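REQUEST FORM: STRUCTURE PREDICTION
Request ID: SP-0412
Submitted by: Lab K.M.
Chain count: 1
Length (residues): 427
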Amino acid sequence: MRIGFLSLPVPGHLYPMASLARKFQSRGHDVVFISLVDTAPFAEAAGLPFVPCSETIYPAGSIDQFVRRLSQLSGEDALRFTVNTMMKGYTASLFKSLPDTLSKARVDGIVLDQYQPYVELIPMHLRMPFVHVSNALHVDYTGRTPICFMNWQNETGVDAIARNIERVRRSRKLLEPCTAIAQSYASEVGLSVDWNNPHSTLSPLAWITQCPREFDFGHAPDFPQFHYAGPFHDGNGRMDFDFPWQQLTGEPIVYASMGTLQNGLADIFRSITQAAIGLKKLQFVLAVGGQLDPKQLGAVPANVVVVSHAPQIEILRRSSLCITHAGLNTVLESLSSGVPMVALPITNDQPGVAARIANKKVGVVISPEHASPGNFAAAFDRVLGDSTFLANVQRVQESMRRTDGLSVAAGILERAFDLEKSTQGAA
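STATUS: Completed
RESULT:
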């Protein structure tokens, strides 16, 4: 049985999905990684067979245009742009091209990202088994907890549940462009769908989140096929980036990254460099991404190293603090490395991730609008000066280490697809 792994074509989803596919492959299973042609280097770095999809609509270079625009947006503007430009267009292209791609790749079952709305209609039509994974924070439309696009803390009162449900309604309205495309496809292929139930097309076999149970609010989505796993990363299978290791001085490192999509906000990085001026006993490493030229930050103090990209896991293992946009991958990598955080959620699921950082007291949260040098300095002092944050991080770190999220997820996939773990090449 050959299992396809279909990924959204952005690093925050490619890295965890490729790690999961590689883990599944290492257990003796036949896999193929599917995404846009621009993502081939990710599959190559992970050592995975790769098949491109939607090549006519998204030729080489298409993703750069999307990322360039998104890197300059925040809040609901960024969320709406993501839905209308990426989710809507990519989903429409998959309805047209994916069935043929799956046939040519000889795929028998498929693993889908929950953030690709309604793509599951394709395997439903083909009568192909499918599993959902949440590479970003799982989206729960039931209202049991605040939907992940909000920074609300979890409350259980009647008013709080009503507020949660109202935000679910607004979020579903935001997805209407995707829903309309899905309704057209379902009608075309003769699928009957309850469009009033946002979970009606959820995989009946399994829904796996890489969010650890210990990091969540404590009220899982109320579905029997929902499973917590843990981080989908093992430090391997990443693209190589040059890094000036010789510039590290041995002082405690503060690592800053705003991810791969929201890294065009130069003012935030400038505020960090200004805060660093008065913090000579710390060394700052800023990974500003591909949308900013490091020169745009101007002159930086001697205790600041600025690069476009960094080997993130290796740097985090040497760090004392991480400044993050609260993307789930960076947050889980920080927790896995035992590093507390200062989080500045920008958009998408990041507010929900930041709410969990605050709830578990593994870091502090700053609104991007309040990202001044003074507020940064105060946040650094608070996190580094209070051992409670580090102790809480280490508690989550140890729990994740014991759980081994990749192995848990791979085992769930084996049971979902009714596959036994191969004795050859198993890891």
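NOTES: DSSP finds 14 helices and 13 strands in the chain.
Reviewed by: T.R.
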